[in-house]
Amino acid sequence: MKSASAFVRALEQGLSPIEALQSLPEYEPPYIHRIPVEIYRAALRDGWRFFPVSFGKHLAVTHANLAQATDNLQQLRSWAIESPNWALVTGPNSGVFVLEVDGGKGLASLLDLCGDDWSWLETLRSMADEKRCISFAWPEGRRQISSSRQIGEGLSVLGEGDWVLIPPCREPHGAQHAFMNPMAEIATAPVWLIDRAFGPADTVDPSRPFPPCSSVRGAWSNAVLAEVTHD
């Protein structure tokens, strides 16, 4: 299991922060009724809403897909029969947002912004090759700032109207998503991140819908996914 202590030990061995994160092993999740156990647990305990991503040459996620996302275990079991790829709808309905770190440039941006605050290592994280997804609890009563979807080079905030692939999905080039610390709780985001991504509580306006899909997700719209077979 990856943790802040394992990260610190790697640093003590002389690795750079980027090398330390890359050195930590991946994790393969077990299943409950064909549903990856972390998805099962997140739906049951935290109310995270998931939807299946169809196999095929292209990945096309529509508003209808986002609308069908659910935490209903019976529906998830029904979808799981087809051994799909899984996606999580981010935002207040699931109570979670994701900081997506893309490659070395994204990690450099993250390390620059966080300074000496390593608390982001203690929340649920996943990775696929050089892409990392860091999950945080949605801040109650706050609204995401539209411009926060890109807070640095290679650093994106996926929130209202967004979605993210969840382990054990595969990237188009074959890299598998895996949880880095699968038993971690979903932590509150650090102050430096909340200040960049969310407006004050009094800026919430339920009558003004947030744009349904971000440009960040557009890059995945035509992605080719490798089929994954599970028992």
SSE topology:
Elements: H1 4-12, H2 17-22, E1 31-32, E2 35-36, H3 37-46, E3 50-53, H4 63-68, H5 73-80, E4 85-89, E5 96-102, H6 103-114, E6 125-128, E7 131-137, E8 150-152, E9 155-158, E10 163-166, E11 178-179, E12 187-188, H7 191-197, H8 215-218
Parallel strand pairs: 7-12
Antiparallel strand pairs: 1-2, 3-4, 4-10, 5-7, 5-9, 6-7, 6-11, 8-9
Brief summary:
The chain has 8 helices and 12 strands. With 231 residues, the chain is an alpha+beta fold. The chain has one domain.
Walk me through what this model shows.
The protein has helices at 4-12, 17-22, 37-46, 63-68, 73-80, 103-114, 191-197, 215-218, and strands spanning 31-32, 35-36, 50-53, 85-89, 96-102, 125-128, 131-137, 150-152, 155-158, 163-166, 178-179, 187-188. The protein is of the alpha+beta class and 231 residues long. The chain has one domain (4-218). The two termini are 23 Å apart. Mean pLDDT is 79; it is low at 204-231.
Notable traits:
single chain; 231 residues; alpha+beta; 7-stranded mixed sheet; 3-stranded antiparallel sheet; 12 strands; 27% helix; 20% strand; globular
Strand runs, count:
12
Helix content, binned percent: 25-40%
Strand content: 15-25%
Measured on Cα atoms, how large is the radius of gyration? 17 Å
- Outline, from the CA principal axes? globular
Low-confidence stretches: 204-231
Task: Output mean pLDDT.
Answer: 79
How many alpha or pi helices?
A: 8
Span between N and C termini?
A: 23 Å
SSE pattern: HHEEHEHHEEHEEEEEEEHH
Structural class comes to: alpha+beta
Describe the main β-sheet briefly.
Answer: 7 strands, mixed
Indicate how many domains the architecture comprises.
1
